[in-house]
Write the C-alpha cells for this entry.
Amino acid sequence: MPFELTEDLVNQVESLIQNADDKALQKLLKDFHYADIAEILDELDLDEAMYIIKLLDSETTADILMELDEDNREKVLRNLSAKEIAEEIGELDTDDAADIISELPEERQQEVISQIEDEEHKAEIRELLAYDDDTAGGLMAKELVKVYETWTVAGCLRRIRGQAKEVTRVHSVYVVDKKNRLVGRLSLKDLIVAKSDQKISEIYISSVDCVNVNDDAEDVARVMQKYDLEAIPVVDDNQILLGRITIDDIVDLMKEEAEKDYQLAAGITSDVEADDSIWELTKARLPWLLIGMFGGIGAASIINGFSDAMTKFPALLMFIPLIQATAGNVGVQSSAIVVQGLANDTIDGKLFSRLLKEFLLGLVNGLAIAAIVLLISHFVFKTTYYESLTICVALITVIIMAALIGTFIPIFLDKRGIDAAVATGPFITTSNDVFGILMYFVIAKLILGF
Amino acid sequence: MPFELTEDLVNQVESLIQNADDKALQKLLKDFHYADIAEILDELDLDEAMYIIKLLDSETTADILMELDEDNREKVLRNLSAKEIAEEIGELDTDDAADIISELPEERQQEVISQIEDEEHKAEIRELLAYDDDTAGGLMAKELVKVYETWTVAGCLRRIRGQAKEVTRVHSVYVVDKKNRLVGRLSLKDLIVAKSDQKISEIYISSVDCVNVNDDAEDVARVMQKYDLEAIPVVDDNQILLGRITIDDIVDLMKEEAEKDYQLAAGITSDVEADDSIWELTKARLPWLLIGMFGGIGAASIINGFSDAMTKFPALLMFIPLIQATAGNVGVQSSAIVVQGLANDTIDGKLFSRLLKEFLLGLVNGLAIAAIVLLISHFVFKTTYYESLTICVALITVIIMAALIGTFIPIFLDKRGIDAAVATGPFITTSNDVFGILMYFVIAKLILGF
C-alpha cells in the first residue's frame, strides 16, 4: 500500500511529540520508509522535527536528512553539533556525505570533517569535496566492488562478501589490473553462473563504459541514459578507477535540470516552489518582470516617437497588441525547439541551414495568419486597403524576424558557453515585443508614407 | 573513449555500403554499441539503413531498432516482412517487443504475433499488449527472477542460473508463495552472503515496494524516484506477481514528460524536434499562434470600442504594450509554479490560501513595478497626474488578476482531470493579454471618466 501524507498522520505525530510519548512514536515510525518520514518532518515545526531526529537512531536519521527539503535540512543541521553531524555522516555513502558537508558554511565543514571517526571514510569524503559539483567527480561515490583480474571466481566471491556489506547496491563488479586501472566489468550474475575455479581474467567483459572524473555531469547523464546504464565507473586520466555513479543520482539530476529549464522558460530565476515564502517568490519573479517592464517602456517610447502617424492612421494602433503577442509567441516557440535540440545534442553546427528553415517556417505561418487577419481587418474593422496591407506585411515580417531571433540567440549563447535555457521565456519575448512594434511602425511608414 | 557521430564516419559507412563491402562494414560496426549504430542509421537514407539491418545479425538489429528515431523505425518496419519483424522481436525483452508491435498498424500486429516462434514469448507479449500505455502494465516486462519461499539458498542459486540467462539485468530476486503471490525480495548480494543450506523464507526481506498493474505510469515514476529504486515488481489486485519495471524505462518516461511539458509551456502542441520537416513543425506551432491571433483580434476590438478615449487621452495608448507584456509574464510565472507543484504533488487542496498568497505576491510585485513606471511616465513621458494614476492602478490590478488567473486555471483543470501543463504558455498569456487590456480601459474610464 503506498504511503500517503495525511493531515491526520501529521496531527498524530505532533500530539505524540507533545506528550513526549517516545515509545509510541518509535513504534509508529518504525514501519515507514525514511523518505516518508522526511515528508512528515517537512510538515512539522523545527522543534518537532529536531525531537524526532534526536529520538531515532542515526542510521535512519542520516537517510532522512538526505531526503529533507533543502531549506529544512539547513535548519536541522544548524541545530546539530559538529559531532552529531559527523555521526550522521558516518552512516551515509561518501557521495551523500560530501553533499551534506558542502551545504554547510565553510568554517563548519572542517569542524565536522575532523569529527568523523572512520579515517578511510574521512579521507574519501575529503577527496570528493575537491571535485566540482557539476562534474562526474561531484556525482560519484567511493563505494564500489572491485576485483583484480588475477583472482579466481571463488576467491572473488569470498572477497565480495566482505566489500559488498559496505555497498548498498551492487550493480557491477569492476575488474582492475594491479595498478588499479579499470580493465573491465562483471555482473554478479556472471559470477554466479561461472565455475568457481575460473580466473576473473577469463570471464570478465572488457568493454566497459566509463567516464572521466572531470566530465560534465550532464554528459554523464546523457551517456547513462543512452546506454541504459544503472551505474558507471569513474576513472582519472590514467584510467585508474576512482568511484562510481549510480542512476538514482542521475534521475535526481535530470529532474532538477528539467525543472530549472521549465522555470527559466516561464521567467523564474531561482529554484522556487509553490510553498516558498512570498519574499523568496518575489526574488525569483521580480527580475524578469522588470525586464518585461523595460521592454514595455521601450515600446512606449517607440509609439511616442510615431505619435503623429497614430493620429493620421488610428486603425494602426488597434493592431499593436496582435503584432506584439505574435512576435512573442513565435520567438518562444523557436527558442524552445533550439534549446531542447541543444540539450539533446541533436542540433549540428549548420547555423545557416537552420536559419533558412526558420525563415521558411516563419513564411508559412506568417502567410496563414496574415490571410486570416486580412479578412478580419477588412470586413470587421473596415481598414483601408493600404492599412490592411501594412498590417499583413508587418505580421509576416515580424513572424519571420521573431523566428530568426528566437533561433539565433540560443545558438549564439551556447557557442559562447552560456546555458541557452536563459534565452527562453521573458528575455526572448521582451526583445521580440519591442522589436516587433518597431518593425510595425517602420513598415507602416514605408507603405503609408507618413 | 566516448562515441562521437562524425560526418567522416557516416561517409565511411555510406561508401562501404555503395561498394557492398560487407566484411569491412561488419568489422567496422562490430565494436560499436547498438545505440551508436542506431545514431549512424538515423543519418542514412532508408535504403542504406535497410542494407545494414539485413547485414547484421538479428540480436544486434533488434536492439538497434529500439534505439532508432521513431519515424525512422516506422519506415524500417514497413520494409520488413512480418516474419522478419517476428524474428527481431524474438530477440527483445517482452516490454520492448510489445512496444514495437503496438507501433505497427492494427492488421499487421496479428500477422507479426502469429509468426513469433516461442509460444511463451508470444503469450507474454499478447498479455502486455492488453495493458494501457500509461499504466504500470504498459511499462513492465515479464522477464524477472522469481524464487519460492520454500527453496534453499543452494537450490535457489541453481535455479537462478537458469532463469538469469533470460534476464538482461538482475536487480532483485522476487520471492513468492506457492500461489505466486509476492511476499518479499532478495538481492543477489544477500544470496551470495547467505549460507547455502538456509531456507529462502529465513533470509528474504518482506518489505517490498510494488505497484499495481493498473497504476498510473507517472505514479510509478514518482515511487521509484522517491525510494531510489532500480526496479519495482508489478502485481495484480490479488498480489500475484506479473512483471517488473526497470529504471531505464522510467528515465525515458521522465525525459519525455519533461520535454512535453516544456513544449506545452512554449506553445508547441506535439512532440517535434528541430530536425522535423517544416510541415510537421507548422502543424505543431500554428495552432497556438492562431490562439494568440484571436487574442490579438480581441484586443483590437477592445481598443476599437474605446477609440474615443484614445483620441482624448493619447498618452494611454503608449502603455498598452507594457500592460499586455506584464499581464502575460505574470500569468506564465504563476501557472508554471502551480503546474510544477501539481506534478510533484506538493500542492495541497487549499485553493483559497494559495490564491491569497498569489494576491499578496501580485501586490508586492505590482507596487514595485508601478512605482518605477510612475516615475518614468511622469518625468519622461510627461503624463498628467490622472493619467499616471490610471497607469499605475491598472498595472497593479492587472498583475494581481494575472497571478490569480495563472494560479486558478491549472488547479481547476487538474481537478477536472485535465493535464494542467496545457494551461501554461500561449493559453494563459493570451487570456491575460486580452483581459489585461480590458481592465486597463475599464480602470481608465473609472479614473479619467471619459
Observations:
- The mean pLDDT of chain B is 88.
